[in-house]
Amino acid sequence: MNKLSLFLSVCCLLLVTNIQAQGILKSQILAGGKSYTYFEMKPATPVKGILILLPAAGEKPKSIFIKTSLPKEMAAYGFTTLTLDVPAQMFADNQCIGELDELIKIKLTQYQLTHHNVVIGGLSDGGAIALSYTEYLNSQATPIKLKAVFGIDPPTDLTRIYASADKEISYNCPLIASEGKSVKAYLAHTLGGSPATNPKAYEQLAIYSASAPDGGNARFLKDIPVRLYSEPDLEYVQKTYCAQLQFSNLNAFDLEKLAFNLKQAGNQQSAYITTQGKGFHSWNILDAGDFAKWITGL
Q1: What is the C-alpha separation between 169 and 45, in angstroms, rounded?
Q2: What domains appear along the chain, each with residue ranges and CATH number?
Q3: Phi, then psi, of 250 in degrees rounded to 5
Q4: Which strands, in side-by-side order, build the sheet including 25-31?
Q5: Angle, CA 127 vertex, CA 272 and CA 176 arms, to 5°
Q6: How far apart are CA 55 and CA 64, in angstroms?
Q7: 8 Å CB contact between 103 and 134
Q8: Residue 46 and residue 107: Cα distance in Å, rounded?
Q9: What is the pLDDT of residues 180-216, one digit of tens each?
Q10: Rounded CA gap, 115 and 273, in Å?
Q11: Distances (CA, A) of 182 to 93, 171, 176, 188, 286
Q12: Given the DSSP bridges, would you call strands 79-84 and 34-41 parallel, antiparallel or unpaired?
């Protein structure tokens, strides 16, 4: 084992040991007649805020506590961190909304806090669900304002994603072509057709719609602090997955537009943060220390 590998192994061991020492609690909630598991890491001091982290598709919620130091950083400021299972999808449906509503209600009562003490976000699909859920809350007759929302490389424009998947099917890369078929089939089944045959469904459920003058549902993010993160490493993607992939195949393609849309709408508390060498499509993209300072400064 070389020195770098040994150093990384020791760092990982220290992180895991520290997290275990702080304790991760496993609990259940009931929502819509179903039982859901969630995990919680509380601060040593009285709880002043709630951080909800949603996993990417296929990611175990409990593993998030090891993949990012964000729970530890936020605990220093009195935040309890919650992680939970959510469906592998690109928006918050009624099931997701019911699950998150119930969890937040329980925790607000337990810690005697308000929605303004809640921060929500996630990686990939988890980030998309966090953004979509926030848009849902802000779209109500009486908007419910959270403290902040963030997404790490989330899919946002369903119309672009469908078009991208359709192109990937023709690429001479079996893995990417297969993924394209799966994504296209999923969207067509879930939304009742293609963007050409059912455009309204795509706009109604997308976090952001480039084809809509106001960005579609993005208009419900104009009054809340938002951070979008990405590492748009096209060279890495082409070398690792498929040389035919283009920037328009990446979620970063839409995140740039969404960030511009939010600024144009007057959201001066929104930011799009890109990185290099942190790791494509991973929790590492988010700098936990910087994030904690941002949240506590709001």
Answers
A1: 52
A2: 18-156+222-235+266-296 (3.40.50.1820)
A3: -95, 150
A4: 25-31, 34-41, 79-84, 49-54, 118-123, 148-152, 226-230, 270-274
A5: 95
A6: 7
A7: no
A8: 13
A9: 999 999 999 999 999 999 999 999 999 999 999 999 9
A10: 25
A11: 20, 14, 10, 10, 28
A12: antiparallel
Asked if the model's pLDDT at residue 295 lies above 70, the reply is: yes
Dig out the tokens for 152 from the structure: 């790490």
Do the Cβ atoms of 68 and 288 come closer than 8 Å?
yes
* Mean pLDDT of the 54-66 span: 97
* pLDDT attached to residue 187: 98
Q: If you write DSSP's letter for every residue of the chain in order, what string do you get?
A: --HHHHHHHHHHHHHHHHHHHH--EEEEEEETTEEEEEEEE--SSPP-EEEEEEPPTT--GGGHHHH-SHHHHHHTTTEEEEEE---SSSS--HHHHHHHHHHHHHHHHHHT--GGGEEEEEETHHHHHHHHHHHHHHTSSS----SEEEEES----HHHHHHHHHHHTTSS-HHHHHHHHHHHHHHHHHHTS-TTT-HHHHHHH-S--TTSTT-GGGGGGTTS-EEEEE---HHHHHHHT-TT--GGGSTHHHHHHHHHHHHHTT-TTEEEEE-SSS-TTSGGGS-HHHHHHHHHT-
Q: Which two tokens stand for residue 9?
A: 């192994």
